[in-house]
């Protein structure tokens, strides 16, 4: 198994992230979206003024589709030049720092007791002051030689104290004088001011992902808000007249599985979900929903194939969108697509079959949103498959697996319309055309809840 984690060093992916961060930092305030591009029929292009049917592309190989989605993200970031935001700490989880986190204070900001006990001055025995020092109290009076004062963990050390004696290492004699039961080393159990950092020290670099620990450090260092890359704004359009939002399936109607699944998943990928709209299987309704959106990324579900009610392709042609990916050599999910609808806006079309939609999410939406969020690419990693996996003759397969010890165990119920496998999975195995033997190493795509924990990543 190769290691997981963010890539280090100067590879192409890091440069992508740096490039996006540089764009955010140098932003000129030219905000998204660019409605003029839509109304003038200008960008992405001239195609808007002459809505000719776009030539159908051949399905794109799976790795290339992901690379194209990354490139789309870079182009969108370059075109939009989004300003960094000031994100209050309680909203910043999952963002990427757009400015270094420099300490606004020394840490600790005063000499601090590391233990409950006594601050002492000079050698034992000590006369103990009547009043102790607690955490949060203002500066205590200086100690004189032979004096001690009760002190709590986190309290300010009185000037001229030579050490802290832990409560379990002191005893009081019958005259009320304090003695040490072991040697006292000068400075012991005192955390000196600035031990962790001095004001102005860089604690974290630009590009750092804001984790719960980063939030804690930022607060400790004096921040109420951090400067971060703004979240990409994503609107989800769920197409399909057959979809119910509650109750049991009946009379040929089925429950919408994607409306509940996609928003938290998109948030885990660093996006802000501005709306989830249900759209009728009607050409004008789809057209109106797409052209009326000012999101950075529109995510549609369903309607990507060539049936009579599949309105995504015709709508993209009608608005002169540029199809960047039109079908991918991957199963499930091969009708997925990626289009540029305006200079700064993209549309990811996910197939309606639910596992096919997951495949589209990880193939096209994840790289696009990762670049817009200026997050580093996850380090690719592999594990041996415990069992053989049947392959497609020409296409890559994405197969839900659970990780058991050193092996990835392929799960059943991995058909395009099924979520039973993925709901139990830790990852998706990338199975090359032709399939995989037992023991064969397969690349794994982590699922956000498996790698980061549900409370951490679903902000
Ligand atoms: N003649 C062809 N037909 C189909 C092809 C093809 O290549 N040629 N591809 C098949 C594949 S593969 C897929 S995947 C689907 C993609 O279809 P669409 O993206 O057009 O999706 P729909 O037709 O709208 O729906 C497909 C399927 O999924 C169900 N669905 C849709 N939305 C949801 C939702 N939100 N929650 C749960 N289930 C949903 C829908 O009811 C259909 O059963 O096309 C094949 N056909
Ligand atoms: O590939 Mo479809 O996406 O089989 O369900």
From TrEMBL:
Its EC number is 2.10.1.1. It catalyses: adenylyl-molybdopterin + molybdate = Mo-molybdopterin + AMP + H(+). SMART domains: MoCF_biosynth. Its cofactor is Mg(2+). Signal peptide: none annotated. Residues 23-62 are annotated as: Disordered. The keyword Metal-binding applies. One of its GO terms (molecular function) is metal ion binding. It is an enzyme of class 2 (transferase). It comes from the Bacteria. Pathway: Cofactor biosynthesis; molybdopterin biosynthesis. Residues 235-371 form the MoaB/Mog domain. Gene3D superfamilies: MoaB/Mog-like domain, MoeA, C-terminal, domain IV, Molybdopterin biosynthesis moea protein, domain 2, Molybdopterin biosynthesis moea protein, domain 3. Keywords: Magnesium, Metal-binding, Molybdenum, Molybdenum cofactor biosynthesis, Transferase. The keyword Membrane does not apply. One of its GO terms (cellular component) is cytosol. GO terms for biological process: Mo-molybdopterin cofactor biosynthetic process. Belongs to the MoeA family. Catalyzes the insertion of molybdate into adenylated molybdopterin with the concomitant release of AMP. This is Molybdopterin molybdenumtransferase. It comes from Streptomyces luteogriseus.
